[in-house]
Amino acid sequence: MNADRDQPSVPAPGGGATAWLHFARPLLIAFAVVFLLVISYEVAERLWLQSLDVERLLFVRRVRGLLIIVAAAALTAWLILRRSPPLLSGDESADRPAPGSPLTPEQRAAQFAYWFIRMRWLAIIVAAVLVLFAVRVVELLPQNVWWPLMTTILVLGGLNATYWGLLQSGRAGAHLLPVQAYGDLVALTVLLHYSGGVENPLAPLLLFHVIIAGIVLPRHQCYVVAATAGTLFGVIVWAELAHVVEHYTFRVFPHYLAGGVPVHAAHNATYAVAGVTVQTAILFLTAYFTTTVTDRLRRHERQLAVYADRLLAQSQLLERAFETTNTGLCVCDRNLQATWSNKRWMTWFGQRPGGGCADAAMGAEDSPGSRTLEDGGVRVTEVAVGEAGPDTTAQRVFQLTTAPLFDKDGVATHVVHLGQEITEQKRIQAGMVHAAKLAAVGELAGKVAHEVNNPIAIISAKARLLLADAQEPVPPRMAAELGKITDLADRVARIAQGLLSYCRPAPGPAGPLDLRIPIRKALAIIETPAAAAGVRIQERLPDPLPEVHANAGEMEQVFLNLFLNSMDAMPRGGKLSVSAFVDDGSHGHAGSCLQVLVEDTGCGIPAEIRDHVFEPFVTTKESGRGTGLGLSICLGLMRSNGGEIDLESEPGRGTRVRLRLPVHGPLARVTTDG
Questions:
Q1: Among 639, 630, 558, which residue's Cα sits nearest to residue 596?
Q2: Hey, CA dihedral for 559, 560, 561, 565, is it positive or negative?
Q3: Is the domain covering 512-662 a CATH 3.30.565.10 domain?
Q4: Is the pLDDT of residue 546 over 70?
């Protein structure tokens, strides 16, 4: 059992102004009450008690004094106890266990010792008040017992301060509790001796020590404390009976006069022996009942500790299981407020009631949680966390399974939310849907291109035939319009051929190829328009260059598309560079391959479409200037030739396209530049 709970913090005894205020306020209240009682009695005596004789009036005054003493002591004790911690509360200076861990025997003994010290300060204050009123105010005890009683109280206070110092220094040891118990018995016995001995009605206070010993000490030590208390009380009574020590009269106790001398009950052997016998029997009976109840409570406490450890172990096992399976769990009450959740859930949805970002699925009026409480059904919903936008990685998707918890009467009292992250599954699903769309578009585009090819070829051929007819000269305006028809028909034919190449790349004749040939052919085609646009071409192709196994025409088309894209990205001029090197596997690729880099200093590609540029109909060009098929065709042609292509680009800093093709035949020695 964990006794480290939130309790009112009480400073250690004797520790500063706060501790003094803790006791001063009850004392001031008690003195005010006593003052009111004294004034009330004086008024009552003057109004109604003037007719009494002297002896009766003296008896009434003594009873008044006794009642005032008891009232003051009881009020002071109640006010202090009201603001004091319970027996098992920890102290700020005591060694406190970690939350959830049981108290060790040393920690338990330290807590009991601190509680003993607090209550002893209370007993010292109450005893001082009793002595003050009994001796100085109402004279229930003779004046010569003032200093012995006050000295005993001061010695008890010094011992209490010593106990506190030993606890604070950590040198108390395991024997401090028994030492305190026996020391208190000695002090109480001395106080009883100087306040009437066996005639004192407060003699049963020894029972409280036995009760406390039964709570904080083992059974055998409790019986030793009871025997010690009975022995000390018997010694004092015997000493007063045998006139070894003086008996001090307690005036409230009835006395008989023999020849003008009071006869004390403490000097009556029958009364004294009976008092000691009854007191000792009550002490041992109290020890038996206290230890029996305490042992049973301790046994139950140990059983509860075992059950708590089992529950903690099961809870930790369940927590680890959920953490291992990446599952979040939250339990909500009928008000849809979260009462328990594991760490994974808190990481996902935060600390707010209802689960933070999962509020819509849990706490709304028409939420799955509220509907589950109504009909007891199980529901599966999806919750998106984060803002949707071009960067889909910023959004996380969770699947929540909401189920009810029923009590023994079949009434839904709680709902359980089981959460699993399905972000990756959603991305894979979206990719599969997108791939299916692309496949459908590709198949449709292939069929459309095939159907368009024949009529476009006929249109182009007829227009050229009209232009080439020498029998009847064609007017210049008509010739210009026919030229536009042929140009546009050729453009449509190229688009259709590109679609066919993307959908069903033709194998074509492939063989050993020096990539410098298709590269230079493509450069020759764009050389004139590049110079006109202010684009400077830089070729860095090593000689010799290892051969690759590829189709020359297809590779020429690949490079031409890349060069045209680079020129379109540099409308105000720039630099287009082509380089090649051999990667022998040190760059993370399996086997040797020839890498070709096509780089430009153009405007770059926006981040939101960078990952989609190899998809068909995706383009950064203005409407009417591009079809969006160039890079997708390059990708298809590279794959048909056993190669790879990827792209790196930043807006405003240009684009780099990297092509890889396996080396064909013996690997030539080429200086790497990658």
A1: 558
A2: positive
A3: yes
A4: yes
Residue indicated by tokens 């009556």: 268
Cβ-contact 279, 206 below 8 angstroms: yes
Q: How far apart are CA 289 and CA 589, in angstroms?
A: 85
Structure tokens at 496: 């259709």
Question: pLDDT higher for 530 or 673?
Answer: 530
Q: Which of these, 367, 374, 380, 370, lies nearest to 411 by C-alpha position?
A: 374
Nearest to 601 by CA among 540, 529, 537: 537
Ranges of each domain in the chain: 325-421, 428-503, 512-662
CA distance 89 to 12: 13
Amino acid making up residue 511 = G
pLDDT at 104: 72
* Integer Cα distance of 445 and 443 in angstroms: 5
Confidence of residue 77 (pLDDT cuts 50, 70, 90): low
Asked whether the whole model's pTM tops 0.70, one would answer: no
205, pLDDT greater than 60: yes
Write down the CATH superfamily of domain 325-421.
PAS domain (3.30.450.20)
- Look up residue 245 and give its two tokens: 């020590």
Q: Is 344 exposed, middle or buried (0-12, 13-18, 19+ CB in 10 A)?
A: buried
Taking the mean position of all CA atoms in its chain, how far away is CA 150? 56
The H-or-E segment that residue 495 falls in is: helix 476-503
* Cα 332 to Cα 457: distance, rounded to the nearest angstrom: 71
For residues 60-78, give the mean pLDDT.
Answer: 67
Q: How far apart are the first and last CA of the chain?
A: 68
Q: What is the phi/psi pair of residue 423, to 5°?
A: -60, -45
DSSP 408: T
Q: For the domain 428-503, what is the CATH code? A: 1.10.287
pLDDT at 98: 45
Q: How many CB atoms lie within 10 A of CB 524?
A: 9
Distance CA 335, CA 331 (A): 11
Around Cβ 121, how many Cβ atoms within 10 Å?
21
Please report the pLDDT score of residue 394 as a whole number: 64
Both tokens assigned to 438: 């692309």
| HEC secondary structure over 245-259 | CCCCCCCCCCCEEEC
